[in-house]
UniProtKB/TrEMBL annotation, chain A:
One of its GO terms (cellular component) is ATP-binding cassette (ABC) transporter complex, substrate-binding subunit-containing. PANTHER family: MALTOSE-BINDING PERIPLASMIC PROTEIN (PTHR30061), MALTOSE_MALTODEXTRIN-BINDING PERIPLASMIC PROTEIN (PTHR30061:SF50). GO terms for molecular function: maltose binding. Gene3D superfamilies: Periplasmic binding protein-like II. GO terms for biological process: maltodextrin transmembrane transport; maltose transport. Belongs to the bacterial solute-binding protein 1 family. It comes from the Bacteria. Residues 1-22 form the signal peptide. Keywords: Signal, Transport. This is Sugar ABC transporter substrate-binding protein.
TrEMBL record, chain B:
This is Sugar ABC transporter permease. GO terms for biological process: transmembrane transport. Pfam families: BPD_transp_1 (PF00528). Residues 73-263 form the ABC transmembrane type-1 domain. It comes from Acrocarpospora macrocephala. The lineage of its organism: Bacteria, Bacillati, Actinomycetota, Actinomycetes, Streptosporangiales.
Length: 431, 277
């Protein structure tokens, strides 16, 4: 999901692997832009042989349980899951692609997909493998490159506003629904005792853009035009979004040097009341319940993010499963992915990992619609956006990170930042 | 003796910056060890405490029970020991040849070694992996060990050190009828103790702490080494188990400390004499 070191390592290694694969492998054709022809449909016969899967962190811990269920349904198949550390997964995947020595399936984040596809690392999803309408629409969009699909969404990760309900009550405010209410809400929490009204990521390489970009979307701005042929950052909407981000610091709601680091400390700081509110993902719920126990309901409020002129749009990321172009058992690999995408298995995986399933029907099966805290995320999923799925994203996102820091420090105006973003990001390009 | 007394009497104040330096170096280390005994909450509390308030052994219990710790440990030991032995043998051989045997292209060869010393490892990372894979070594101990058997830095250290051994010793052995191998093993190696100890520590350290290469070269969990294994279990997508991480780091450091205590005397001697002419 949100990984820090991610961006730099990814940019470096994919650049290297792109060069290498260009001369080292004979996959034919030399641009990724030519629409790939989807592979032949996968039949319904039982899967056979060994299927090797790379999965990260907690997902990697739990994936073998789905593998066991798969083996019961397909006695001649064997699923081997290798756990990979999240932070370093891009390195491992890009080196594997460069060498041609790959497993069959890997879990990955949507923002890394395009670079691996450009390196010809992944096979397109076979026609008719899954029913796309059964998935979160934006999560499906994040698997498409030039119209072809290269991955199947496994879980979604969106962010909502977590706030200290008790402090808000003390200050006599309720969860902000609009932009106008957000700054006063944050200021009120601060008055009620929080050090930070709203925790904002300002100078975090590899992460600030995940906090900053939603303000652009909420203002009605977009990073690119609909065809993804050029950037559209020098617009009044983008300027307004950047200005909103900056205003949170200017109004003293958020600190100039706010940070989500160290990872895992946000929930601690929220539970302690040091942080009054923060926009973050569903993984905060579990640790907060553990920290606060019975006080959780009384102290923590969760609400969809406040809406600007463009609506209450939040960041969408998540996990997807892709099959390597050099997979030894692609047939078995796709059958495993089809299996884990059934509502029953997707629901079970969600129960095991506390991830939010990308398969819409799995929410009911897993009973997620019963939990009021999780239900807010279901509402938020109706209004999300993802960054463009392009190979240069790692580089581009670090440009956004840089401007985020300058905005927070007040060393640049939103107008200049928008112009600078347009210029710098255009120089890197969309391909 | 007179000088030392002099220092003790009049330059005691020199110890103040030294003590500050020592504290700066040692404190993070102490914090790591103490953090290994703290629950997550205490680590993230934001207050700096040297001793854990609610000390716990849970991190270590988790480390040893929850994961395949022993297999990571064994892998790390096998790789580090093999790499150290390989370096002791090959680097000293190369060092001997480059400093004491006259042959055409000797200078050019040494220049190549020096160049390799200056190339950052990330540059050769992917080509090396492709090479290892094409040799059919992916996911084997061969992949983890072979590329590191003769480190350029080790060749450099050994060449400098062996260069200082008087030629007359070697010539005397040669006059007595000893061949190059005999000279190498009975004259050069016994005289190179400090440099070999330095080399052993440096190589053990780099092999033991290596993260990126084993992460990529080991493709299944049973081939992971300690640093990769600990990264795998302590860092989730959105949370980090800092207690487990610090406990793992503490366990990783122990063998290095033990090794250093054993070889300390030689190590300092080796560092200070190599390169002096």
């Amino acid at each position: 999901m949100i990984i820090k070191k991610y961006a730099t390592g990814l940019a470096l290694l994919t650049a290297a692997s792109l060069t290498l694969t260009a001369c080292g492998r004979d996959t034919g054709g030399d641009t990724a832009s030519a629409p790939a022809t989807p592979a032949a449909a996968i039949d319904d016969s039982p899967a056979k042989g060994e299927i090797t899967v790379w999965a990260m962190g907690g997902e990697g811990d739990q994936m073998p349980k789905i593998g066991e269920a798969f083996q019961q349904a397909n006695p001649e198949a064997k699923v081997t899951v290798t756990g990979v550390p999240w932070d370093d997964a891009p390195t491992k995947i890009s080196t594997a692609i460069a060498s041609g020595q790959t497993p069959d399936v890997t879990l990955l984040n949507p923002d890394a997909l395009a670079a691996f596809v450009a390196a010809k690392g992944f096979a397109p999803v076979p026609a008719g493998l899954i029913d796309e309408s059964g998935f979160d629409a934006n999560a499906i969009a994040a698997t498409k490159i030039d119209g072809a699909s290269y991955a199947v969404p496994l879980y979604v990760d969106t962010r909502t506003l977590f706030y200290r309900k008790d402090l808000a009550e003390k200050a006599g405010v309720s969860a902000p629904k609009t932009w106008a209410e957000l700054n006063t809400f944050g200021a009120a929490l601060k008055k009620a005792g929080a050090k930070e009204g709203l925790l904002l990521a300002t100078g975090e390489a590899g992460f600030t853009h995940q906090v900053l970009l939603p303000y652009i979307w909420q203002a009605g701005g977009a990073l690119t035009n609909a065809d993804q042929t050029e950037f559209t950052l020098d617009t009044p909407q983008v300027i307004e979004g950047l200005a909103k981000y900056q205003s949170l610091v200017k109004d003293g709601v958020s600190s100039q040097t706010g940070t989500y680091e160290p990872w895992g400390s946000v929930e601690e700081r929220l539970a302690r009341g040091e942080v009054g509110s923060v926009v973050n993902g569903s993984w905060l719920i579990g640790p907060l319940k553990e920290l606060l126990g019975d006080e959780f309901d009384q102290k923590i409020g969760i609400a969809t993010v406040p809406a600007g002129a463009g609506g209450g749009v939040s960041w969408l990321s998540g996990g997807q499963l892709a099959v390597f172009a050099d997979a030894k058992n692609p047939d078995g690999a796709w059958k495993f992915i089809r299996f884990i995408s059934t509502p029953e298995q997707a629901a079970r995986f969600s129960e095991l990992t506390a991830d939010l399933p990308a398969v819409t029907a799995a929410w009911g099966v897993a009973g997620l619609d019963q939990d009021p805290a999780v239900a807010v995320f279901n509402d938020q999923l109706k209004s999300t956006a993802t960054p463009p799925v392009i190979p240069t994203w790692a580089q581009l996102s670090s440009i956004v990170d840089g401007y985020g820091e300058r905005l927070a420090r007040g060393t640049i105006t939103p107008q200049d930042a928008a112009a600078g973003l347009q210029k710098d990001m255009s120089a890197v390009g969309l391909k | 003796m007179a000088i030392r007394k002099n220092i003790r009497r009049s330059r005691w104040y020199l110890y103040i910056p030294l003590l500050i330096g020592l504290a700066l170096t040692v404190l993070p280390f102490v914090w790591m060890v103490s953090g290994a005994f703290k629950p997550q909450r205490e680590i993230l509390s934001g207050e700096f405490t040297l001793l854990p308030e609610n000390g716990t052994l849970r991190n270590f219990a988790d480390l040893f029970t929850r994961v395949d710790f022993s297999s990571y440990f064994v892998n790390s030991v096998v790789v580090a020991v093999a790499v150290v032995l390989g370096n002791l043998l090959f680097c000293s051989m190369l060092g001997y040849a480059l400093s004491k045997i006259e042959f055409p292209g000797r200078r050019a060869l040494f220049a190549v070694v020096m160049t390799m010393l200056m190339v950052p490892t990330v540059v050769t990372f992917i080509p090396l992996f492709v090479l290892v894979t094409r040799m059919g070594l992916a996911n084997t101990f061969g992949a983890l060990i072979l590329p590191f058997l003769a480190a350029p830095l080790g060749v450099f250290i050994m060449r400098q050190f062996i260069g200082d051994i008087p030629d007359s010793l070697i010539e005397a052995a040669r006059l007595d009828g000893a061949g190059e191998f005999r000279i190498f093993f009975t004259v050069v190696i016994p005289l190179s103790g400090p440099a070999l100890a330095t080399l052993a520590i440096l190589q053990f350290l780099s092999s033991w702490n290596e993260f990126l290469w084993p992460l990529v070269a080991a493709q299944t969990e049973d081939m992971y080494t300690l640093p990769v294994g600990i990264a795998l279990i302590s860092a989730g997508a959105n949370t980090v188990n800092y207690g487990l991480l610090l406990a793992g780091a503490t366990v990783i450091v122990l063998p290095i400390l033990v090794l250093f205590l054993f070889l300390q005397r030689f190590f300092i001697q080796g560092i200070s004499t190599t390169g002096l002419k």
